[in-house]
Structure formats: C-alpha cells, structure tokens
Design goal:
The protein has helices at residues 12-21, 40-49, 68-76, 104-121, 174-184, 201-210, 232-244, 260-272, 313-327, 340-343; strands spanning 2-6, 25-30, 33-37, 55-64, 89-97, 128-129, 136-143, 146-152, 192-194, 253-257, 279-283, 297-300, 331-337, 352-358, 361-370. The chain is elongated. The longest helix is centred in the first third of the chain and has 18 residues, at 104-121. The strands form two sheets. It has an eight-stranded mixed sheet with strand order 2-3-1-4-8-7-5-6. It has a seven-stranded mixed sheet with strand order 11-10-9-12-13-15-14, covered by helices on one side. It folds into two domains: 2-152, VC0802-like (2-Layer Sandwich); 174-214 and 247-370, Vaccinia Virus protein VP39 (Rossmann fold), CATH 3.40.50. By secondary structure, the protein is an alpha/beta fold.
Length: 383
Amino acid sequence: MKLLAKTHYGLEQVLAEELKSLGATGVSILNRAVAFDGSKLLLYSVNYRSRLALSVLMPVSSFGISGQKDLYNGAVAVEWDRYLDPSKTFAVTAVVNSPHFPHSGYAALVVKDAIADFFRRLTLGRPSVDSKDPDLLVNVHISNNRVTISLDSTVVPLYRRGYRQGMSEAPLGEVLAAGMIALSGWKPGTPLVDGMCGSGTIVAEAGLMACNIAPGRKRKSFGFMRWKDFDAALFRSVRFDAEKRERKSPVKIFGSDISAEACAIAMTNIKAAGLEDTVEIAERDFFASPPPAVNGTLIINPPYGRRLETPDNSEFYGRIGSVLKHSYEGYAAWILSGDLVALKKVALKPFRKFDLLNGDIECRFQGYELYGGTRKRREGSDT
C-alpha cells in the first residue's frame, strides 16, 4: 500500500526516520511530506503513534491532465464503491498549483461531481456531501499536469492531541514542538528545560516522549475508523501495543514562565495529558533564575516581535545569550526565532541550524553547545 504522511516544512527528515522506526519501507522525502509503503496495520500505527505527521493520505489514483475535462474523467474512473457507500457522506479538499485551474475550489467541485456521477451510473443512489463531518474525506493534489487523488485517513489533523485545554498568546503547534525536540537530538534520560514555556507545548511533547505515550492516546476518532474496510480488532491491537510501551519517565521535564497566567494554562494542559508526575511547571524569570537541573537540553521559543510585542528584540536576545553563557554551562541550548537579526545578538556560534515555519513565519532553529569545565565555549558570530 502506498501512503503519504504530511508534515511541516523542515521536519521531513525526522519524520522519515520516525516512519522507518514504525516499520515503513520505501521511504521517500518530498516537500512537506514523506511517501512510504506499508500495510493497514502501519496506516493505523502512524496515525496513532506518529509525533511528527500532520495527516496520513492513501493515494487511490494518479494521472496526467492536459485540461479540466481530464480531471473529471480521471476522477469518475476511480472505483468509488470500494471506499464509500451511497448512504454515507463525503467531502473533497483540493490543493492546486496548475494553469488548468483558477482556484482549488473549482477542482474540488469537479471531483465532487465525478464521485456523484459514478454512483448515479451504477444506480446506487447518490452519497451526500458533508463538508463539516464527512464519512470519507477525499484529497485532490494537482501539480502542473499531474493529479493525485487520495483518501485522508486522519481528517482531524494529528496535532490535535487532545490535551490542550487552554492557550497562551502565540502558542506553538504540537507537531512543530515535537519536531524541534527531535531535531535537537534530545533523548529521554537527560533533563529538558523550557524557560519560556507559555502554554507548555514543548514540555508536554517532551513528557509524552519521556513516558513513551502515543500522541493519539487521547484522540476519540480517526478518519479511517469510518472507512468501509475498517478493522476494529486490528486497531485495538495497535492501541494495546502502544499502551504496553508506556513507561515512567527516568527524568523530570521542567517548564517555567514569567507569566503566572501562562503557567496556570500550562499546568492545566500538563494535567490533561496525565503528565503531572513528569513535567514540573513553575513561575520563574528566565533571566533571574538558575537552571532547574544540570547538563540538560534547553529549548525555548522566545518572543520575536511578529506574534508578541517586545520593546527591543535585540536587547532581549542579547540578555538570552548572556544567561546561556553564564548559567547554562553543560547544556545544549536551542532557540526558535523568526527574528534573524535579533538572533545574532545571542552572540554564540551555533553548531546546528534548521529552517522551519511557525505558521506563516519563517524561522531559524539554532543549537548551541555550552561547554563547561575546561572545554572552550564556542562564542562569536552566528553567521
């Protein structure tokens, strides 16, 4: 079975590695997606256990087009009765980058008509369209002269973990947070600290990793559960296997913020995730407090102007650099920022850099090795 996992820009490589660890073969990295081969068991497992995928698609047809009529002909040729009963509902979403279609809505309408006409020709009755809660969500991707029609096995995106009860200002997405942790190279067994935790997404995702709790554990449904060939017993086995892998975290995860309101929201989310014994939340000023543990990993997403108002980003980032130099020896420190000018004011030489997107904001995720003892700290320009 050919499958496709979608993700954020910049996370493709770590997603590919995760998919391989789950049993995927034929893995191929694309733009914001990873193609792979797998069984129905793997389809269920990736939806339930992947921390880095946004959704999982199952392609059912791929064909070339030279005009709009070709899209209809290709779509109506799909054996839709294999996937959908006429008594059920469906919806179509489209992503289009092609001179043949002025906008994605028109392409989606063409495919909707093709599906309806397929059932009419079989005199089976016509399935209804339900854009809000369909039994089957069809995804259409058109790039120039190539069309891929897929079934969305996820529907509600996988970043909806089920633990987020509240949000502070400018919250970080769950999949992006998990991706940052993966890119940092942090492994459960050493402390992880977020000194500007906001609503606690980074520490929540780290806590789930530390306890090996599947990110889909609190979700109530996935798109594939309404497919014609859904195997409830097989999915129960996926859930059972994932629960057997859960463990007690070998270390504490530490989150803190100067805002009492943010800390309250973070603690509510941590409790909802069942991580109150693993993740510690404290109201603390990053600039005036020592690290809560030694020789760990620090990951922070400080304000960078476009989402939160800060008086002077350059001065703010300079203070971050000073704290890292004087208080975080022995740490690997990582910063996500959309202000590349201010980021230079950290005045430490990064050992790794990744380009990411936080929503529509282009960001840099940089890591710094803060050597202690007799080892020389890397300082200087970050260019």
